[in-house]
Amino acid sequence: MSTGAGGSQAKGGSFVTDWKNEKEVDAYLGNLETEFGFQCYHEKLHDGCHRLANFYEQIRKDYPAAAKVLKSNCENNEYAESCFKLGTYHLVGRGEVEKSPQQAFRLFNRSCDMKFGSGCHNIGLMYQSGVAVEKKDFPKAAEFYKRGCELNNPDSCFRLGTLYLQGVEGIAKDFGKALEYSLKSCEQGHMLGCANVGHMYHTGDAGEKNAELATKYKTMAKEMQTEIKKVKKQIKFGE
Hints:
The chain is mostly helical. It has helices at residues 22-41, 46-60, 63-75, 80-92, 101-113, 117-129, 138-150, 154-166, 175-187, 191-203, 211-238, and strands at residues 9-11, 14-16. It contains eleven helices and two strands.
């Protein structure tokens, strides 16, 4: 479906929007909403429905409308990412939905069962912190972190590695597993995962002391930290 050009100006054979022109911006956003609505309700694209929900949330700031689309896309289309995001709404009571950690837990778990790594990760966090469960349960947290890690969620890999590195109730210290999961999180761009790997090679917890590898991973962590600061600075400047 074509969104149309609205009031945009043509330059170099393509249409661009003058972001200082309120009418052009309104026309562009209106076209965008129409496009996502068409994808969702006429083309029956589940990812189109999720884009529509994101549009309501991020552009229109219409959280009730976003929640309605997320609920439909989760329940009727079984779209994992929509189930996950609806869970975050229930966690804090956004979009006029009931604030219910228990409902958030169910939705995160549902998205995890659909192979959405962030859902598994959030279940792990809830078990680790004791939210919406009877008590803290580190082995259950580790179980879901492992599932998240296997779905390439770097936060889950890092959390799992940290549990083995520190040793907690129900989980004995295991430096081999700590290195394995910390390294996997580092390879996926997790700054603290790289820092943990560097620390383990520095102390010998990795099985040996290796100054070269310790420096390598410490440097990687610092470079990631620098990039994060740059991005935050650019976002702040853009605001």
